[in-house]
Amino acid sequence: MPRTRHLPVTARRSLVTVAPSLLAVVVVLSVFLSLHDRLPARMATHIGPGGEADGFSGQGAFLAVTLTVLLGDAVLFGGLVHWIRTNPGAQRVLAVIGGAVAVLTGWLVTAVLLANADARDAASVTLPGLQAALAFGAAAVYAALGWVICGRVQETETASGPSTGASRLSLGDSETAVWSRATGSRVLPATGALVLAAGLVVGITTGWLPALPLLITGAPLALLTGARVTADRRGITVTPTFASWPRLNVPLERIAEAGHRPVNPIRDFGGWGYRARPGASGIVLRSGDALSARLTTGSEFVVTVDDAATAAALLNTLADRKRRTPAGG
């Protein structure tokens, strides 16, 4: 019997992401062309919470926007899935999200086209809530299937690279030291501002209830401008720049060895902020040098911050001293 050749993991996950968008484009185009003569020139393109039309546009504009969204979904998520192939855990999640969003969008657009067929007045178009439920159900089913198709994350895929520069800081037996530095992000505040702006637009044009999730999400992102990283006898402590809470601490006794290495938020962790993936976690606010601590559990904790080499050297010295000191000494 001929041997079966399996698609590489990244190719399989790219297919899970892109295929629904391309299929949705074909379906939407086919339905639009078949119903073209039965569609009103001014179509109902947005259905409110009550199932009645409250947004309208021309046929050409509706089709152009729909195809742009579907193809944009394929390009955006397909590109991200390829870019973060070194982070298979995040890659799998993005692949499933991209495919599910395309299924949801394609279903709802097709339902809107069918609802507009033979309508004399676009304002009379209605869409039962069942269609939205079916759309989300189809997206959920595809997400579950896509999760299986993407394959499990293997241990060899999730292993973090070794930290570099495991040096020591010269300190006397009675000396101690504290290292502290602020680190910031440009991406998170900008993203938060955009989400807030979108929430305001939605609130003014559609209503404040549907805008609430955008406003709640955008506010903390816009305020999350940075963090202060401290390395001392307590280990690694990370707090917001202008507040003492929430506080994240990695105790010194949990640190096996500290070093520093370059980190790319998207490629290595799938985004910015507090990130966690199999074998690694940390605070990732920008690209560049990061303090990297190999923990006693075998996992890695990172914080993107300048002068990470000095912090790592101090932590190694303090950790060595703590291990030499008898408990209670």
What's the arrangement of secondary structure elements?
Blueprint (H helix, E strand, L loop, with lengths): L8 H27 L6 E6 L5 E6 H25 L4 H29 L12 H22 L4 H4 L20 E6 L2 H19 L2 H16 L2 E7 L2 E6 L7 E3 L4 E9 L1 H5 L3 E5 L2 E5 L3 E8 L4 E5 L3 H17 L5
Parallel strand pairs: 9-11
Antiparallel strand pairs: 1-2, 3-4, 4-5, 5-6, 7-10, 8-9, 10-11
Primary descriptors:
329 residues, alpha+beta, five-stranded mixed β-sheet, four-stranded antiparallel β-sheet, 50% helix
Task: Note down, in words, how this protein is organized.
The protein contains 9 helices and 11 strands. The longest helix is centred in the first third of the chain and has 29 residues. By secondary structure, it is an alpha+beta fold. The protein has a 5-stranded mixed beta sheet. Strands 3-4-5-6 form a 4-stranded antiparallel beta sheet. The chain has a two-stranded antiparallel sheet with strand order 1-2.
